[in-house]
Amino acid sequence: MKKLITLLFILIGISSFSQVTNLEKLEPSEEYENVHVKKMYSDSLCTSFIIWIKKEVKAHKHEHHSETIYVLEGKGTMVVGKDTFEIKEGDFFNIPMNTAHSLKVTSKEVVKVISVQAPIFDGSDRVFIK
Q1: Read out DSSP for the chain?
Q2: pLDDT tens, position by position, 49-74
Q3: How many angstroms separate the CA atoms of 118 and 97, rounded?
Q4: pLDDT score of 8
Q5: pLDDT at 25
Q6: Nearest partner of 3 among 17, 16, 22, judged by Cα
Q7: Rounded CA gap, 80 and 41, in Å?
């Protein structure tokens, strides 16, 4: 069931994605201190990433796009706007445009997620919250 949900998420979020990737076996391509991001696909409508987080993602927002997350591995405490909730493998949630969000990893294992951001993500609208 987990594999089916993951496959459906990818097909819906990335309808023109033509390369098959085994997400369970996908590992970071280099050593990293806290966060490692691998772009999987991009067009004018969306950009998809696999993201590994060891410790945290500091509070930030995206002024011009939304983000959809599917948790592949790990556990953490997520803050989205005024809501705080626990995330774990198999969880799926959305982060609306211009909404502050952050993550604190609570598991011994790394948090690994699929992130689909729409429209195309180039990093220019990321604003960190102090």
Answers
A1: -HHHHHHHHHHHHTTT------TTT---SS--SSEEEEEEEE-SS-EEEEEEESSEEEEEEESS-EEEEEEEE-EEEEEETTEEEEEETT-EEEE-TT--EEEEE-SSSPEEEEEEEES---STTEEE--
A2: 999 999 999 999 999 999 999 999 99
A3: 9
A4: 45
A5: 85
A6: 22
A7: 25
Q: Is the pLDDT of residue 109 over 70?
A: yes
* Encoded amino acid at 97, one letter: M
pLDDT at 18: 58
Q: d(Cα 79, Cα 83) in Å, to the nearest integer?
A: 6
Strand order in the sheet with 47-53: 35-42, 47-53, 111-118, 66-73, 92-95
Higher pLDDT, 20 or 88: 88
Any residues with CB less than 8 A from the CB of 102 and at least 6 apart, and which?
56, 57, 58, 59, 60, 78, 79, 129
Query: For residue range 11-33, what is the model confidence (pLDDT) as tens digits?
Result: 445 444 457 788 888 899 999 99
Tally of residues, the chain: 130
